[in-house]
Amino acid sequence: MRIGELAEATGTTPRALRHYEQAGLIASERDGNGYRLYDAGAAVRVRNIRQLLDVGLTLDDVRVFLPCLDGDVTAGPASEKGLRVAADRLAVLDARIAAQVTVRDRLAAALREATGAHMRPVA
C-alpha cells in the first residue's frame, strides 16, 4: 500500500510515517515512480508504534520493542529491557509532573499575594 493508504488505515499522517521510517521503525520499498510502498503488515506495526507513543514512550524507547511490533505487543511476556524502559519513562513523567505542580503552586501563591484573594490550585 502507498503511504497515504497506510496513514489512513492507521489514523496517522504521511509525515509521521516518514518519521517512523527515518527512525528505522518501519520500512518501505519504492515503486517505479519513487512512491513508497508498504506491505500489509506495516499497518499492525504502525498501530503498535502509535500505542506505545500514546502511553508516553519516545521513538527511541519504541526501538526496544522492535522484536514484537509485528504482532500483539501485549500478548507475550514483558521483557526485562522493555519493563526497564517503561519504568524509566514513568520516572521522567513523574518528575515533569512534580515540577509542573511546583510551578503551578508558585504561580497560585503569587496571584494570592498580588490580589489578596484566596485562589485555590486547580487539580
Can you walk me through this structure?
With 123 residues, the protein is mostly helical. Helices cover 57% and strands 3% of the residues. It contains five helices and two strands; from the N terminus they run ααββααα. The protein has helices at residues 3-10, 14-22, 42-54, 59-62, 80-115, and strands spanning 29-30, 36-37. A two-stranded antiparallel sheet has the order 1-2. Strand 1 (29-30) and strand 2 (36-37) form a beta hairpin. Helix 1 (3-10) packs across helix 2 (14-22).
Keywords:
elongated, 5 helices, mainly alpha, single chain, two-stranded antiparallel ribbon, about 120 residues
Question: Quick gist of this model?
Answer:
The chain has helices spanning 3-10, 14-22, 42-54, 59-62, 80-115, and strands at residues 29-30, 36-37.
Helix and strand sequence: HHEEHHH
Beta-strand content bin: under 5%
Measured between the Cα atoms of the first and last residue, the distance is 46 Å
Task: Quickly count the helices.
Answer: 5
What's the number of extended β-strand segments?
2
Spans of at least 5 consecutive residues whose pLDDT stays below 50 are: none
Reported for the largest beta sheet, the result is: 2 strands, antiparallel
Helix content: 55-70%
User: Structural class of the secondary structure composition?
Assistant: mainly alpha
Arrangement of strands in the largest sheet: 1-2
